[in-house]
Fold these 4 entries.
Entry 1:
Amino acid sequence: MQFRLHKLTPHRHLLLVQRDDGTTTRDELDSRSFVRHDLMHWCFENRAGITDAFLGQGAAPTTTSQAYAVTEVLVGMLQGVAGREVDPQQFVDRAAEYLPSQGHVLPPFVDAAFVRAVLAHWQRLYGQWQSLRVGGILELR
């Protein structure tokens, strides 16, 4: 899978997802609202090996799989703490308490080491995005 973010203007980007089967999804988005979230999805799903959530469905889900729903909640929670000092174990504990209220359980791979790795990966990629000039492309495979 290829995941490309094209910086169109300082405030807009094109998200292009090309799946392994050759199908693609393209969306022009407001960068302020979406780029942090899109990059968090990449980091989370890539590290977890998830293929049937947001990116695996080409950023335009056709089903509401359990993996999609849990991923969306956890990515939102991670996005909320990204760039701040956070204790990874406290994050895991909080997620384990919160997910059942949404009808989900914490996936077994989500532990402190996983959270630490996802946040560090996101920090690197977000820094790369911020350093791009208009017209630049952040490409991930």
Note: The first strand starts at residue 2 and ends at 7.
Entry 2:
Amino acid sequence: MKSRSIVLGVVTILSLMYSNSVLAHEGHEHMMSNGTMMDDDDMAEGQMDSKSAPVVEVGNKICPVSGDKISAPGEKGAMGEAVKYEYNGKIYNLCCKMCVKDFKKYPEKYSKIAEDEVAKEKKMQENQEDQK
């Protein structure tokens, strides 16, 4: 009976230690000096490697998740302060922290939307210059 209590106690302690360790890392994010938010998955993929190629600012002015305009630095938009998020060596502008969660779920979808928006804007500017 006494050994059963000891085993149960050890199992309980180990379970608590493991669950606290898992919970401590869940949702753990890092804000880089350039404003880029990175989580543990990004770091595991090597995206924080200082020897890798420098990150490139995509320059999107519309949030690919919500479709809202990105507020200027220091200003708050309709959803709050704008956030920069790095994915595959590129920095994407999002209208708020809430959009980061959705971007993480479907990064290929939202990165393409942002890049298409920038390409469309660039093409419009080129067309305007050609008309002058």
Note: Residues 28-131 form one domain.
Entry 3:
Amino acid sequence: MATINVRQLADDVVDRLKRRASLNNRSLEGEVRLLLERAAYDDMAAKHAAFLEASDRLRERTRSRRQTPAEVLIREDRDRGHRDNV
């Protein structure tokens, strides 16, 4: 396993981490380890931001195109006899 040293961490941050660790019945090291593990595997915020950026780009590219509301497309599909397999 690797070791990481974090330098120049503000004293108030360390104090908050110690309080958090104490509330969770963990050592400071255990609390920081858990936070780092979660941060390393939790990239949902990054994925969400990337999705929003892609959505904005697509919206901008298709802004001048005529858009058909979804309910119209669904009605047309149902009128042709296509239904969900329910």
Note: The chain has a mean pLDDT of 90.
Entry 4:
Amino acid sequence: MAGDTMRFRNPAGHAGLLHNLVALLSALAGFLESRAALFAKESKTALVQVLVLVACLGAAAVLALFGYLFLLASAVAGIAHALHKSWIWVALMAAGFHFLLALICLLIARSRMKKSMFQSTALELKKDREWLKNLEKKNPSTN
């Protein structure tokens, strides 16, 4: 008993370099996984927002084209009016109506473009940066 060697026991309970590296990689993987999941969720929302934007711009282009066609029809109708035909006012009102619809679609698209994408991700990253700044203040590194 007096001659037996005692096995080294770490009184502080440290697990060692390998365990700490595995824990660090696990924490890093969990962090990246949570951020990737948040990015995926907001990507779906952003896709819907971009599709609405494209649809509104497409609708605005089609309605503007119809407005242009009715404007041309009005010019033709003006010539017809010079020949005592009376349907010009109906064609002009139709052109004005289509231009109004195109303006409404452009305003909707403009409001969609102003809406910020990836708000939750940016907020989480801002929180992470603040946490890191506070961590540096609490534990200043000794160089």
Note: The CA atoms of residues 72 and 95 lie 9 Å apart.
